[in-house]
């Protein structure tokens, strides 16, 4: 059995539930870094200056974010329609302009109604 020990400077009135939440978040953060190292190459850097290191770390973390978002969606990376490679073939069969689904955010100059849902959700650490 494995035991973890924590030291905190929180006030004595802090509930144990809050300590448990923070400890759980720390483990999730470590798991995220491990995933970044294995799937997005966070630890695979060979740079000669700090600017290059920061560039590599930023791109690796953005790649990890993309991988996590795609995994949460549970869909194919490219669900688009495939067309023949001949530029003349079936050119007029495809729609001229593809429309994206509405995001729920109003267009500039229009008013949002209270029944509209926001375009994104705020997730707590407990939801993951």
Automatic annotation (TrEMBL):
Domain of life: Bacteria
Composition-biased stretches (Low complexity): 100-110
Region listing for Disordered, in residue ranges: 76-128
InterPro entries (UniProt xref): IS701-like
PANTHER family: TRANSPOSASE
Name of the protein this chain belongs to: DDE family transposase
Species of the source: Aeoliella straminimaris
């Amino acid at each position: 059995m494995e035991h973890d020990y924590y030291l905190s400077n929180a006030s004595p009135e802090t509930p144990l539930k809050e300590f448990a939440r923070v400890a759980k978040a720390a483990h999730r953060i470590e798991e995220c870094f491990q995933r970044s190292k294995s799937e997005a190459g966070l630890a695979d850097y060979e740079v000669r200056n700090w600017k290059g290191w920061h560039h590599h770390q930023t791109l690796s973390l953005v790649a990890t974010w993309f991988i996590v978002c795609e995994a949460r969606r549970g869909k194919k990376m490219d669900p688009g329609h495939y067309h023949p490679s001949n530029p003349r073939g079936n050119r007029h069969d495809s729609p001229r302009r593809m429309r994206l689904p509405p995001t729920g955010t109003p267009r500039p100059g229009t008013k949002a109604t209270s029944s509209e849902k926001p375009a994104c959700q705020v997730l707590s650490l407990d939801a993951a």
